[in-house]
Amino acid sequence: MMTIMGHGVLLLCVLFSSPEGGTAGSSEQTRDKESPSEVATPDSPSDALPSASDSRAKESVSQTNDNSTNVRARIGRREVVLIPNSGPIRRGHGGHEVYSRSGTSIPRLRIPRSKPPEGEEAPVGSDSFGLLVGLFDDTAKLNVIDRTEAGWTGKGLRILSDQHKLARVSEPLFDMDPFSPLNDAIQGLRREILAPISTTFDPAIAWTYQHATNVRDGYENGRSSLWFGADGAVILWDDPDSSGRVVYNIQSAVGAFTPVRPYLGNAVGSPMIVNNILVSSNFNLYMLFWKQELFEKKVRVMVGKFEDQVFFDANAIAYNPMSQFMYEGFNESITNPFPGYGFGGVVQWEVSDSWDLRVGTINSETTGKSTGFEYLSSDHLFSIFQATYTSELTWGDRIHEGHYRAMIWYNSIGKTPSGKNPWDASGWGVTFNMDQEIWRGLGAFCRVGWGENDVTTSNFSVSAGFSIENFLGRQGDAIGFAGAWSKITELGRYQTGFPIEPIGMQPAVPAGNQAFMELYWRVNVTDTVQVSPILQYITDNSSGIGKSWIWGIRSVWSF
């Protein structure tokens, strides 16, 4: 796959170095029709073209944004992947997009699928598609939807443009894939039924098992669970300047010979879930919201039922429990009191290639099983502002991407019949979040957060760790380690199920310090299956649990 992509970049160099697209354009026009998600390769030998590390190649890639429009107008509707550096490349969930190690979408250039008649220019297809467009434009009905709406996590999809997708296997242990018939069926469903009505559908299944060496009295030591989820969108229109779509997400979690709840996190005294893949109900429509892009797609507006963590506190290394760390405290800062899935709104503005601003507010009293409107009022809101700076550091011949985020939030909670909170309170908090690629697949992350005692699980927390992509030279495999130290508040104890006031002979559990560590090793087993052994460790003397080791395994099937 890497060789094919490299050829695509080399082809692009020839296109840019030729006044009319020249030889490269002609050679591609003679090729048979292929999927638009496939990477184009030149017919001429690769050694006749400049390498990806050649200075001419680098210069051509750097001019992509300026030239892509003109080249598209000349040469039509086929696609070439432009690789900006020599870092590891993997396909995104669903197999339609190509992403860098940090989850950033690789730019594409469209080139013709068929040779035009002699003396005529190559046809140029419409850049617009969608359900409403197809109602009035017959040619738009033939457009294939080759874009994925979201990246996977256990708590829902991550609508951060094209970031943090679940890795598509590029170097499996076994060529045989027992799930290939199901994968083919899903692809057929997308192509034959959903694409004509501009609808996307991206399912995944996960099985996890965890065993804790030390748990609270009355709790089981082991948990075996099956999780299913699917997300997608009904795209009403999508053109170069704007788009509109309805985004949905459904999830389900069931026990496999053990109950799902109470969560193992509660059993070991953690206010955060130690397996963040799981959700709280057997089946539910967790998210349903309207997403609109405006002003050359630099502004996005989302309104409906969603989870705030979908849009805030992301991280290229520690964010996705399906392929990275499973502990919820490594997928977000434990100090950020993100509510469950509720009604709210978010506005995002891509100020430049380096800066991204977003602000949102959501019902603070909602839970995963609710409609999202329960107890919604001006006194029950969680609001947050985030500024993100994206850096590109050049060390040697490689570009190392990093993201630096600063957040400020305000949370207002109440004592409602849901039992989610024990009192009425409001307060502020701040969070810093960063991830940075250091060298050839090695990346590091850090989060530091503070919040007022009465409105957050932890009033201070710091977490940090690293991951190594392409571990042991196998593309798509990864290993990661992280640790966290947090000051758990009384609200955090309450949300874990501990009494915050004496009940009979049972004493109250005071606020205290908690440490957590996790090690995972993700292995691509087949083209659709990833398996990860995971080891976790928690210590919290104030909770009465002391120390507990949690070992387990995670298996993920993506289609």
What's the gist of this structure?
The protein is mainly beta and 559 residues long. The chain is built from 9 helices and 20 strands. The chain has 2 domains: 124 residues, no CATH class; 318 residues, Porin.
Strand content: 35-45%
What structural class do the secondary elements suggest? mainly beta
User: In angstroms, what separates the terminal alpha carbons?
Assistant: 19 Å
Indicate how many domains the architecture comprises.
Answer: 2
CATH architecture of the largest domain, by name, is: Beta Barrel
Compute the number of helices.
Answer: 9
Q: Using only CA atoms, what is the Rg?
A: 24 Å
CATH class of the largest domain: Mainly Beta
Largest sheet: 16 strands, antiparallel, barrel
Number of strands: 20
- CATH-derived topology of the largest domain: Porin
Low-confidence stretches: 1-114, 138-169
Give me the side-by-side strand order of the main sheet: 5-6-7-8-9-10-11-12-13-14-15-16-17-18-19-20
Mean pLDDT: 74
Explain this structure to me?
- It is built from nine helices and 20 strands.
- The protein is mainly beta.
- It folds into two domains: 124 residues, no CATH class; 318 residues, Porin (Beta Barrel).
- Strand 8 and strand 9 form a beta hairpin.
- The longest helix has 16 residues.
- It is globular, with a radius of gyration of 24 Å.
Distinctive features:
single chain; 559 residues; mainly beta; Porin; 2 domains; 16-stranded antiparallel β-barrel; two-stranded antiparallel sheet; 9 helices; 14% helix; disordered N terminus
